[in-house]
Amino acid sequence: MLEFRTQGFNGYSVKYSPFFDSRIAVASAANFGLVGNGRLYILGLTPNGIVAEKWFDTQDCLYDTTWSEAHENQILAASGDGSIKLYDISLDQFPIQSWSEHAREVFSVHWNLIAKDTFLSSSWDGTVKIWRPELPNSVTTLPTHSCTYSAQFSPHSPSVLSAVSSDSHLRIFDLRTPASASNHLTLKIPIHAPPRPKMGQPSPMGVPPSEALTHDWNKYRDGIIATAGVDRTVRTFDVRAPGAGPMAVLPGHEYAVRKLTWSPHLSDVLLSASYDMTCRVWTDGSAIGAQGPNETPDPMAYGGGREMGRLNRHTEFVTGVDWCLFGAEGWAASCGWDERLLVWDVRQIMAPGVQKF
Amino acid sequence: MANQTGRNSSAQNRLAQVGEHLQSSGPKGKSALLEKHADDIVVTAALRSAITRGRKGGFKDTMPADILTGVFKSLIERSKIDPSLVEDIAVGTVLAPGGGATEFRAAAIAAGFPVSAAVKSLNRQCSSGLQACVDVANAIKAGMIDVGIGAGVESMTLQYGPTAVTEFSDALEEVEESANCKVPMGVLSEDMAKDKGISRASQDEFAAHSFQKAVKAQKAGLFKEEIAPLTVKWTDPKTEEEKEIVVDKDDGIREGITPESLGKIKAAFAADGTIHAGNASQVSDGAAAVLLMKRSTAQKLGQPIIGKFVNASVVGVPPLLMGVGPAAAIPPVLAKTGLDKNDVDIYEINEAFASQCLFCINELGLDQAKINPKGGAIAFGHPLGCTGARQVSTLLNELRRTKQSIGVTSMCVGTGMGMAAVWVAE
């Protein structure tokens, strides 16, 4: 395991470069992101450990970052003052572009993986905005009317995007639909809805709505999205069957889940990062043979998924986690309020018997 | 300045937002329990005397107050606490005439506590020692005192006998459940074993296992950490000669006990009964003490923190089903602390009788391997008032040794009650 200290700055988000296997960006904030400056770290994995190749300081806290899919040196940062900044890491100090439209904290930014000239942002102001790097203003604004912690483009369709927000709903927008009063909203799935009861079994427990903090599209199975948030539970949904309720319910985290990310290599594996100071690796139970011995079935659990291991090394809230796209499958990086970036091998925490890492 | 005001209110908003993420999850579960807070009630020392056999063991000629004095002295010595900081001492005891109030106060003074340290005795039967710890913890939590000691002592050699229960009035005898309160433990446990279908063979197996675990633990020196050796006067029953001996190990632990060897013993309470001396707790003498304070106090005083007290429960059950007490008391304390039964690493459940302990384990569906890993009262004895405080040192030492964290102590209580407490080793 490798480690880098983001001295004086509490991590909020970590992203591997889609171009280089040795480059990692960390968005961070002083004073736990409550008040003060932000810093975007560009880190390099070298034979001598992790080194800060560059950093950009900002006036307000940074909450998220995403690499450009089109240009290997460009990266976005989401700021607490409502601005989004585009940096070129071959330049120093200042962003090459800045957009200020959101009225409150921008909490997520995401680059379109297919239409690589587009990115989006979501904010506590209750909107998702679509942007093009060359335009000074946003292209489209999609209201969610509630604090939107996470938004993403589908990896399968350039015009489909999703958002989860504090109203406990997963929204799907399709930009191909005609502009109308619905603002391209095509689906609104209640995350807290219980799974459909199976024949001959008691109906699953209902839970109250709670804030959804993170979600991610499966990279292999079109239409599969994982969500998680304040209710400590990871769920997966199939947006092609929106009324069916969750396909998998994975309880286990002891505090709210802050970040989810599906494996870029395996269709059933995902990583989560939580306020309970752990990162956990899960299978959603969709792969054949993935279902293991479940000694103590949680009454909430559903769909045959299970936790396969956890990283216990963080000493504060874990806020970000990301998979490395390259090399041996299984490398991941995580960041948290303990001012540490950890780079580790997921397979190591999955090995039987060493669950506690 | 306007700008600054704006920033402050935005910081407030952000704090509230993040706070909500945590609040909805509630302060529950294992990770919440393992958090360290300044107002936690922590244990900085927990120890006990050896537990010795009634009428035959090392403390047979020692007054209970003297065992207690010895334990208090060791507690001061080991913890290096300034005795003048201790504000209250609660001592659980069951059989002492007058509740032991007078001699325990004297024992505290003799042990080196200044007259400013208050002392009380209390009696909740077999859970008195735990009740003493809980009372002190609660007094600290409420801010009444800062540093206190929960303790327990019993000399069943000197004070066990028919005078332990007062005659019942007609008014009590007329109410059936009231009258049931004085049915002797052995008799009602026999009925309960029959009622709940706990077989003689399973009881003997459980009891033999308790002995075997205790023998193994004693040989490995696992009790050394928790036992304070005491030097006492002892009269040799053969020669009538009085000599000074050091009592530093539980002398009720016997080697070579097997289910088969226990199977030969005649039942004690009914001709066709299942309970006998080998599968019930031993009659014993001993004392134990636990030093409690807030985490902030411990840090200020430089006291080593070995564990913390989390919460406790006490529940009444029908007097004739006294033995089900732990099965009734453990679920509520787990619910209060937001724990699942599998989150608990070790359960110290007092073995008053193999029958009732086994019933509770089965009823709760607990993992046998987590129960009394160093043996229990069947192997080394159950000095009534001492047991609850004794379990704390047994539990915390074992949790720390095995690098585990969460433990539960529990026992059934005469007249039909159960008590349980959750502890965390650090």
TrEMBL record, chain A:
GO cellular component: cytosol; peroxisomal matrix
Keyword Cytoplasm assigned: yes
Gene Ontology biological process terms from the UniProt entry: protein import into peroxisome matrix
SUPFAM superfamilies, sorted: WD40 repeat-like
Annotated InterPro entries: PEX7 (IPR044536), WD40/YVTN_repeat-like_dom_sf (IPR015943), WD40_repeat_dom_sf (IPR036322), WD40_rpt (IPR001680)
Each WD repeat, start to end: 99-141, 250-282
Entry keywords, A to Z: Cytoplasm, Peroxisome, Protein transport, Transport, WD repeat
Molecular function as annotated in GO: peroxisome matrix targeting signal-2 binding
A Pfam family matched in the record: WD40
Annotated SMART domains: WD40
Subcellular location: Cytoplasm, Cytosol; Peroxisome matrix
Family: Belongs to the WD repeat peroxin-7 family.
PANTHER family named in the record: PEROXISOMAL TARGETING SIGNAL 2 RECEPTOR (PTHR46027:SF1)
Protein name stated in the entry: Peroxin-7
Automatic annotation (TrEMBL), chain B:
Cellular component terms (Gene Ontology): peroxisome
InterPro entries (alphabetical): Thiolase, Thiolase-like, Thiolase-like_sf_Thiolase, Thiolase_AS, Thiolase_C, Thiolase_CS, Thiolase_N
CDD domains assigned: thiolase
Active site residues of this protein: C126 (acyl-thioester intermediate), H382 (proton acceptor), C412 (proton acceptor)
Compositional bias (Polar residues): 1-15
Biological processes, Gene Ontology terms: fatty acid beta-oxidation; phenylacetate catabolic process
Pfam families: Thiolase_C, Thiolase_N
Region feature (Disordered): 1-30
Pathway the protein takes part in: Lipid metabolism; fatty acid metabolism
Domain Thiolase N-terminal: start-end pairs: 41-296
Cofactor(s) essential for the protein: K(+)
Primary location recorded for the protein, binned into one broad class: other
Domain Thiolase C-terminal: residue ranges: 305-422
One GO MF term: acetyl-CoA C-acyltransferase activity
Enzyme class: transferase
TM regions (residue ranges): none
Keywords: Acyltransferase, Fatty acid metabolism, Lipid metabolism, Peroxisome, Transferase, Transit peptide
Catalyzed reaction equations: an acyl-CoA + acetyl-CoA = a 3-oxoacyl-CoA + CoA
E.C. no: 2.3.1.16
Subcellular location, record wording: Peroxisome
PANTHER family from the UniProt entry: 3-KETOACYL-COA THIOLASE, PEROXISOMAL (PTHR43853)
Family: Belongs to the thiolase-like superfamily. Thiolase family.
Stated name of the protein: acetyl-CoA C-acyltransferase
Species of the source: Pseudovirgaria hyperparasitica
